Amino acid sequence: MSKLNVEYHDEMIVPGPARALLRPFYVGNQLPSRFYEPESPRTLKIIARVLAMGDEEVLRELEAVMRDFGSSRDGLAEIFEERFSMVEHLVPTGKRLRSERRLVMGAFFSSEYLFECVSLCNPSVVPAPVEDEGADCDGLRFILSLRAIGEGHISSISFREGVFGSDRSVEIPPPSLRVTEPRLMPHHSYDRSLFYRKLGELGLLDSFSKSVVAILKKDFTFDDLKMAIDSASRGTSTFSTFVKDGMLTLAQSNYEVAFKTSDDISSRVIFPLTPNQSNGMEDARFVLFEDSGEKTYYATYTAFDGRLALPQILETPDFVNFKISTLNGPMVYNKGMALFPRKINGSYAMLSRQSGENIHLMYSDHPHFWYESKTIMRPAEAWELVQIGNCGSPVETPDGWLVLTHGVGPMRKYCIGAALLDLDDPSRVIGRLAEPLILPPKVSEHNYVPNVVYTCGCLAFNGHLLVPYAVADCMTCFATVSMDELTSALKESGVKG
Predict the structure, then answer these.
(1) In the prediction, which pLDDT does 38 show?
(2) Which domains does the chain possess?
């Protein structure tokens, strides 16, 4: 056990089974995607049955649905109208439906999803945007991201806000009971040169895809891409369906969503929308990135489709508008990518876990592309001999880059450790803790995933480090430790890469 004075707090975040998302529902389809086109025979049958309902029956059913589900949810009619719009093109031509029938039909294509009923774990933490900081707040206001796991073990990104007090206190207000997904921006713009570069990385560049790109404007939309593909297809009979579908999938995997500014931060949930995320968005590692005075929040996370785990990146200036993008390059594989909070020697820098067991350092001229990596840390102590990885983005200190690590040892026991990297050359490891900083508590032995503590980020303030961490992949707890004590221990450790 580390001899450092780690303070464990009583504050705890546990799953809330009463918090539900109202999601699209298509019979026989389990893919959580707004890109899915619901043109199945059963969908058409449901539409026909709703159209056959009498006016009085429609009114009775609408009143019942609003009574059962509307009391705790604002804007239910608006959501039902949106759901109806997703199947409206399947309604027979010439059918002008009254508002009540439109809403009832929307209800038949909606369902509640308990997005965090299984777990709230693997937290990341960053300072809140300046405009969100309370003037009377005695401490640092922060935003916490969490991996929310619900029915079918599908993961989404959930948020909380809190305050790290000057007295090292941690306060997390109760979350909003009203939960919303962001709106998919229909006219998201793609950069042609960046799209071309990503096609090359994916092995999708051939004569057909090049002819499609040649038609596109410098900035184009998804609809522009579909029209360009149709136009290029008419000019040739020899094109690969694989390439055609790959271009559309690439575009669908790069998109933009936005919440209403009136939504409380704890009511915002980013749910999987694309096929490569169909089983979840896992372990987001947020960082406040600053470059030439401009601040942007980035988060790397793992998109999982049930078979493949693919790292992706999202960015936001305000936790209202989010851009989600693919990561590309030969070094984009495995899990645990974490961006440094600023450029180093003019390049973006990233920690990653290649080969499943070592920590690597990567540099790039663009945050979406990563070509080379260098091993900087390997398993060394017994508690980390199975594998090590980063636990979020590095924290800059006068003594070096502070990195929390995770180590896996006997009986698949996960512990949290720490390392210190040189500020100018992060490939040089100044020191590593020989013993864990945080061990799994006894309560983790008989929980969802036993003997595990894990975090995706920490926060420095007023001389102390705030470490939110998951216990047994089912709840989130908090610990604090003195920055001076921790960095001194690392410099004196004598344990290198």
Answers:
(1) 56
(2) 7-16+115-183+255-491 (2.115.10.20), 21-109 (no CATH), 189-252 (no CATH)
